[in-house]
What we know:
mainly alpha; two-stranded antiparallel sheet; about 60% helix; elongated
Amino acid sequence: LKRIRVCGPRYWPQVIDFGPEDDPIGCQSLLSRAMHKVFGLTSSKASDTITDIHSGSSSITVDQLVGTFSSDPSLIAFAQLCCDPSWCNRSDVDFKEFCLQVLFECVSKDRPALLQVYLSLYTKVESMVDQITTGAIVCGDSLSISGFKLALTYIEALMTGKLSAPKGEIIQSTFVGSLRKQVEELLNCSQELKDDFHKYLKLGKWPDGESQDKRSILLSWFLQWFEVPPSSAISTAIDRVKPKPTVSSSVPLLRLSFPRTHLSVISEIDRCFK
């Protein structure tokens, strides 16, 4: 057996090579089997993934297992958190399962720094969702989405080979894709946001009135994420590229004027000024 490849909609893609250079003592194989038993990555067992498993007279917990394969203090501390009773009582099963999968990846690849990368990206998206659903806006948080998108763009450049990394991709490509999809769904789910965007395009004004803070932060995310230029620059470009009678759309010319702006937003700008 030289290689095992895990694929499918349920689990992150995983390739385990059993060559002497990559895994001379079969560490990844042992870790994969043991962690799968301890973590119980099926949905039916997600609620009790921290339960000890018994083999003869011995028992294994997550922190013990991680400590066997890694001496990194951050991974061990996070594994201990996963064994804490308060963690077991959490109701967000998806987040618990996510953390355990990340822990397995960090340990199996011997890359403890990945833990902070995964958690930072995940919690950023969760924070955005919470702010929109609860209305509890974090002051100044709109500025961080540009850095968040920059991080995703950098990671994707490594994945596609535009940039090189000594150890290959930083994090799972499916995880990055899911984050991007969640953000874009969040920014495309509201007719209210579309109305505020049209007002910004035509008048250069920000939302006012009811739910002003929430609507303003959502619009700022939209503008930054899709790289929308200032309303004054858009108005100038529209005046220059207004469709002639023989041309039904200004989208191609607007696309040339704003090459970094998302195509769907270019189309929305064209519809707004018709």
